[in-house]
Structure formats: structure tokens, C-alpha cells
Amino acid sequence: MHSTDLFVISGIVVAGFVCQWLAWRVRLPSILFLLLVGIVVGPWLGLLRPDELFGDLLQPMVSLAVAVILYEGSLTLKFAEIRGRGRVVRNLVTLGVLVTWLIATLAARHILGWDMLLAALFGAVVTVSGPTVIVPLIRSVRPNSALSNVLRWEGILVDPLGAIFAVLVFDFIVVTQTAATTTQLFTTFGLIVAGGVLLGVAAGHAFGIVLRKHWLPDFLRDYAALAVVILVFALAESLAAESGLLAVTVMGVWQANMKDVDFDDILDFNESLTLVLVAGLFIVLAARIDVAALVSLGGGALAVLLLLQVVAGPVRAAIASIGSDLRWQERVFLGWIFPRGIVAAAVSALFALRLESMQFPGADKLVPMVFTIIVGTVVIQSLTGSLLGRFLGVTDPEPKGVLVVGASRAAIFYAKALHERGHRVMVASPSWGGVSQARMAGIPVFYGSAVSNYAERHLDLTGIGKLLAMSYQPGLNELACVKYRYEFGRDSVFTLRQHAESGHEKHQITGEAAGRVLFGGERSVDELGEILSEGGEIKTTEIKDSYTFAEYREKHPERIILFISDADGNIRFPLSEDSNDIVTGDKVTALVTQHQEAPKPEQGVADVQ
């Protein structure tokens, strides 16, 4: 029996990884695959029975997992970012949450016939979206930059705010089941809220001071954060039942807004841990779904789903965008896109477990209904988002811009050349000097590593479809090529040979880790940097019937071709010094160094300045 249990647990971990990997490959939210696997191995095949497998440990395990997930989400909530995101985002995460809650509550109450308290809890849970579902959807649908920024920041900010709201509603419900009088009801609820908030603030501030004063070695920071989360959750639950989730969420929000404390490495660690917890948690929770309860929801569940999709979303967007400069088409699209994800599933499952232990009527229907909303919104919006966006004219055209990774001299020069020729370009680098140089040239920048988990949430790839990996760090270039070849396609990922030494294999990037190597590998990052140090200028020449590329190359053999643009704005990078696929109408952008001969162009043939 022991070996069987061990096999089942290991199977959960492996299946979770496979689901996450598959979701990454097909660019869909992983929650769809995780829920599907859980339903198949649970209710359908009966291979996984969580209540039998974990017994009395199931609820505390789920509680701790949800606590870590909420803490990780709350670490991303910085109030300065809310103030800096504009009126629409602020309204969406405040008024929009209240509108969604009210409509969802009334729908569950009158369509499903639920108890008002359970309906209110359901309404609070479905106010939460999250970056894990919204980011893949944005990249698939490609809305314009205004909508992309609003949707992405709403997903990031509403995650912890909606979770706090849901926890407060749940705590209120729990208190109503134990309080004998109205006075006792609000007194007990006030103690839970006050206890959770005070403990969260105290623990968050104390741990922040420990990190600020560097009392912990770097290799123990992540471990300490996890230990503190578990300790605070357990302590809060022992002092005031049901205050644990509120305490860890408040702790994360407090730490995220402390000055002079760097939590990025802890956030990265918690994100990695959350991947494992979410994968296992979703499979286990989906395996517990009561098919009979799901079927009993019947058409009412679909009616609630459609009401949230067709009514709640547009009303939320209309109210939030009052006084903004969004066009009506953008407001319609904003109202259509609001998928539910990880936090909604996690907290609903935990709430259901606790309500079932209290024998709260209808508690067994909460998880099936929330999962219906999750799957329904993700599927509907994934299938219709692109069509609606094109119909409304709010999607970006085919992404033709370039992400330049690195702050080497060659990287900055390439970025300037692309920017000055009117192409969308962004420089991503953890080097402040390089980022500052690009910013002074008016080039959009991302200060940080393009391969980090932070970049997954904050790097805006709207309109970008190619990669130039030109960092001085070979490892960063290789990681960027591996990561973005699935984002942009293998043929859209480029790099340079790293070193100026001879072509020894120890200096070469080979195999699947490499992008397409520019200049046939004849030039390196170092060599191009040395050439640029001698000075030079960028010249663009249009190829015509009267002036072929062969004539251009014969006249300017020393020019280093940087890229070629066609009439539609598509960019091609040279895989060799000379190319036969440059045709009439193409514009060749090249580097002309000061020591090169610069003969006057023939009449009718001029460089485009």
C-alpha cells in the first residue's frame, strides 16, 4: 500500500510538470491542462482519491499551499504601481471588483438558488484573475499597447486585492456560523480582521528589517521567507481561527511596499515553488470534484457563466473607463477579456473544504461552480479574443519589432539603428549603464534580465516578434535564445558569435541553445564593438531596378549590412555578408566606418538618411 501511495504522489508531481510544459508549448494557461488531468485521474478513472490518500492532512496541506500562493501574489502588489497605472486600472481593481462581486453574487443567489452568504463568497472568488492566465491570453490575442498594459496590470494587481476581499467574505461567513448575537458577530469578525492585519504587518515589517540589515546570508533568504510564511499562518490560525490567509497576504503586501528592501530573489523563489504547489494542488482538487454536484448545477451554471461573460464584464469595463481616452471599441474588448485562474481555484477549494467540515449547506457546489467559471472564461476568451479584437480593430498587426538582449556596444548600436529607421525595438538588460544609454536615445527599455520570472510578468512584448541576443554574457544569450525561440519562432531568434578569438569550439554556440548566428559567424560581439569604437554612421539605401543589390555591393564592399527592411516593414538580418534574397524595393541599412571609402552615389541612387 505504501508503494502504491508513493507512486500516486510521484505521478501527481510528474503530471503537473507535463501540464505546465505543454501549456508553455501551446501558449495556453496551464490551469486548463491541470484541471483536465485531475478530472481524468480522479472522478473518471478513480486512480486518485485525495481524501483517502492524504486523510486528515488534506486540509492543512491545502491551507499551507494556498498561504504560499497568496503570499507570492501579494509580493507583487506595490501601491506606487497602482498610482502609476492610470485611472482605468485603478478603477478596474476597485470599482470593477465591486461590480463583478455584486453581479456574480446576485446571479448565484437568483439563478442557482444559493444561500446569500455562499453566493457572496462565490462572487468574491470570481473577482480574481491573475497574470498566469491573462499574460498567455494577451500574447495570443495581441491587443494594442494601451489595452495590453491595462489588462496586464489589472491581472497583476487584482490578484492580491481580490484575494484579500475573498478572504474577508469567507471570514465573515465563518463568524456567522458561530456568533450567537449581532454584537458577537461583528466583534468576532473585527478580531479576526484586526488580528490578521496586525500580525501580518508586524511579521512583514520585522522580516523586512532583517533583510534590510543583511542579518541573513543570501543563500538562506528564500528559505527564511518560506519559514516565516508558514509560521505566521500557523500563529494567526492559533490566535484567531480563519485569520491565517489574511495575515500572510497582508504580510506580503506590506513587504512589497517597504523601502530599501529587495524582495526580487524571494519573489523568484516563491514563483518557482508556486509552480510546483499549483500543479499538484490543482490536480488534487480537480480529482475531488463531485461530478454529481457538477451535473446538478445544470443549465444554471452555464447561465451564470454567460451572465459574467456578457453582462458583468462589459459593465465592469464601462464603469472603470468613464472619463478615460479609450475608444468604445477598446472598452468593449476590455469588457470581454477577464479570465479567472489560479487564486480563484485555490481559495475556492480551501473555502469549500472548511465549509464542508462545518456542514455549511451547499458547500460542495462551490468548487464545481468556480471551476466552471475558470474553464469557461479561459476557453471562451481564448477562442473568441482574436476574432473580436480584429473585428473591433484593437489588435496590433503582425509583431515585427525586435527585442535586443544586452547592453554591449553592438547591442545598443543595433537598437539605435532600428529605432532611427522607425522600427519597434526594446533593449532589455540588467546593466543600468546600458539601459540609461538606450533610454537617452529614446529607445524603450526593460531594466532587468529578459529571461527572469520578473520579465514574464512585466516585459511588454506587444508588437515584438524577433530577438537579437548580443549581451557580453554568453550564458544570457543562450538562455534568451532558448526561451524566445518558442515565443517568436526558431527563425526569428538571432545572436552573434561571442568572442573575437579563432573559431575554436569552446567559443562557439552550437546546437539548440543557439539562435541563428549573424554574419555566418564571421563577426563577434567583441569585433563589432571594436569597429564601432572607431566611429561610423548608419546609411540606408533602397534597392531599385536601376540599382541592384549586386551593384550596391560592388560599389560598397566594405559596408557591414545590419538589417534589411521590405515595403511592409518586415525586418531581415544577414546570416551572411552577402545575400541573394534582397530584391527591388528592399532597404538595406548598413554601418559605414570613418576609414571606409564613401564614394558619391550615382545620380538617382542615394542613401536614405
Percent in helix: 55-70%
Nearest-integer average pLDDT: 84
Radius of gyration: 28 Å
- Topology, number of strands: 11
Distance between the termini: 77 Å
Number of domains: 3
Give the class from helix and strand content and strand pairing: alpha/beta
Strand content: 5-15%
Principal-axes shape call: elongated
The main pleated sheet reads as:
6 strands, parallel
Number of helices: 24
CATH topology of the largest domain: Na+/H+ antiporter like fold
Oligomeric state of the chains present here: single chain
CATH architecture of the largest domain: Up-down Bundle
Poorly predicted tracts of residues: 600-605
CATH class of the largest domain: Mainly Alpha
Write the layout of secondary structure elements.
Blueprint (H helix, E strand, L loop, with lengths): L1 H25 L3 H15 L5 H5 L3 H17 L4 H5 L2 H7 L2 H16 L5 H10 L5 H11 L3 H32 L5 H31 L5 H22 L4 H13 L7 H24 L3 H30 L7 H9 L5 H16 L8 H27 L8 E5 L3 H12 L4 E5 L2 H9 L4 E3 L5 H6 L5 E6 L4 H15 L4 E3 L20 E2 L7 H9 L3 E6 L6 H7 L4 E6 L5 E2 L14 E6 L14 E2 L1
Helix pairs in contact: 1-2, 1-14, 2-14, 4-10, 4-12, 4-13, 4-14, 4-17, 6-10, 6-15, 7-8, 7-15, 8-10, 9-10, 9-18, 10-11, 10-13, 10-17, 11-12, 11-13, 12-13, 12-14, 14-17, 15-16, 15-18, 16-18, 17-18, 19-23
